[in-house]
Write a structure and sequence with these properties.
alpha/beta, Fumarate Reductase Iron-sulfur Protein, Chain B, domain 2, Rossmann fold
């Protein structure tokens, strides 16, 4: 059971949050210099400052919730480079999330958009459904290739094009349950295995469990744990996202009340940014708020926790490897985690090179590359070209969405940071490098 927050009260609180965020903005325009969509689309209304003006006009009811306004807000990646750049500390993320929730509740989107968003919300957070959907995509792709482009809706063609051709094998290493520490136990942690990652990146979860247990951590993966709610939340569907969040909060709180937890670990940074924000999201729910705040305070990106734990002396990569490290936006801008993954990879013996203009988004951004494929493709190409300039042997990052997106725009092996660290600590070579 939980206490429902009246829609009118929630709308009022959203307006209060929006007003406080807008009041902090001094309209200096520094944010536009690092905004990917401003650079790609070249319009003031496609940058953070312009979008803040739009949201202010909506809030003060000086502008109607019409298609051009919605389109400008839809184009926002929520990469939060603007938050990193802003000298006034504007929490743009809270403003744009509130605006998107408002749009989804008040704006009648065209039928095709509604169907596409509904399909994504009903498939992506559920691993079993996602596996079935990708199986159907594999069957439909040859048929779609024979049809004239005019006969296949653009949204459907985009989803078929982006669906992976092959799914990685499931080895059971990231299964629910308690994975005991090897040797003396140093910590007890919960690991979020995610939703899409269970389908597209089970090897990431497996490598994480292997590495943590080898370093003396007992790893708990609660049965029934699932989507963190981020994918649906960032599409503006707050009612659809909250049940996912509540379930995980309840499961982690049960572990905290039982054998206890030293941390809640996330190895997909897009999830981590939202879980760390649970306290804000549930601020008006008197029953859920205390647990949400505690969960958020315990949440760490996997590289944050490993840096706190300390990298073991002598754990080094079996062979030299020149690695380009890609900063996922949700990690560098959303969580302000930049130093830890770099320090760990260097300590593990990898040669690190920096990607030019690393502050810019790759175009993944959750469901963005599905909903806004043209802008996403341009950003993906730019990221692939930037990576090629530094001539690495592989590309590492801490977010599944980035891995899927960047893998389309570079011929290089794309691996998760934790896969390299697991290899350096005695695990198997990442399959992408074999």
């Amino acid at each position: 059971m939980h206490t429902a927050v009246a829609p009118a009260r929630r709308a009022q609180r959203d307006r209060e949050v929006a007003q406080s965020v807008i009041a902090a903005c001094v309209h200096c325009g520094f944010c536009n210099a690092t905004c990917p969509t401003y650079q790609v689309l070249g319009s003031e209304l496609e940058g953070p400052r312009g979008r803040i003006y739009l949201m202010k006009s909506l809030l003060e009811q000086q502008a109607a919730l019409a298609e051009p306004v919605v389109s400008h807000l839809d184009h926002c990646l929520s990469c939060l480079a603007c938050e990193t750049t802003c000298p006034s500390g504007v929490r743009y993320s809270h403003l744009v999330d509130a605006a998107r929730h408002w749009i989804e509740s008040e704006y009648p989107r065209p039928l095709a958009q509604r169907l596409q968003r509904k399909l994504l919300a009903q498939v992506l957070p559920y691993p079993a459904r996602m596996r079935r959907a990708l199986g159907l995509a594999a069957l439909a792709r040859p048929i779609a290739a024979l049809l004239p482009r005019a006969l296949l809706p653009g949204a459907l063609r985009t989803m078929l094009d982006l669906a992976p051709r092959r799914l990685p094998a499931q080895d059971g290493s990231g299964r629910s349950g308690v994975h005991p520490a090897q040797g003396t136990r140093r910590a007890r942690v919960a690991l979020l295995t995610g939703c899409a990652q269970q389908v597209l990146g089970p090897h990431i979860n497996a490598a994480t469990v292997r590495l943590l247990t080898r370093l003396g951590c007992e790893v708990v993966i609660p049965a029934g744990q699932g989507c963190c709610g981020a994918l649906v939340y960032h599409m503006g569907d707050r009612p659809g996202s909250l049940p996912h969040m509540r379930r995980n909060i309840a499961l982690w709180s049960r572990e905290l009340a039982g054998a206890g937890l030293d941390a809640i670990l996330i190895n997909t940074s897009g999830c981590g940014s939202v879980v760390k924000d649970y306290g804000h999201i549930f601020r008006d729910d008197p029953e859920a708020a205390p647990q949400a705040v505690r969960v958020a305070a315990l949440t760490r990106d996997i590289t944050e926790f490993l840096a706190e734990l300390g990298w073991p002396a002598g754990a080094r990569a079996p062979r030299p490897l020149k690695v380009a490290y890609h900063d996922a936006c949700s990690l560098q801008h959303g969580q302000k985690v930049r130093r830890q993954p770099r320090d760990l990879l260097r300590a593990a013996g990898f040669e690190l090179v920096e990607v030019p203009e690393g502050h810019l988004c790759c175009g993944s951004a959750g469901t963005y590359n599905i909903l806004q494929p043209h802008v996403a493709a341009q950003l993906g190409r730019q990221k692939g070209e930037a990576i090629a300039l530094v001539r690495p042997e592989a590309v590492a990052m801490g977010n599944l969405g980035c891995m899927e997106q960047i893998g389309r725009y570079t011929p290089l092996p794309v691996v998760h940071t934790v896969e390299l660290l697991d290899w350096a600590a005695g695990g198997a070579m990442p399959a992408a490098l074999a």
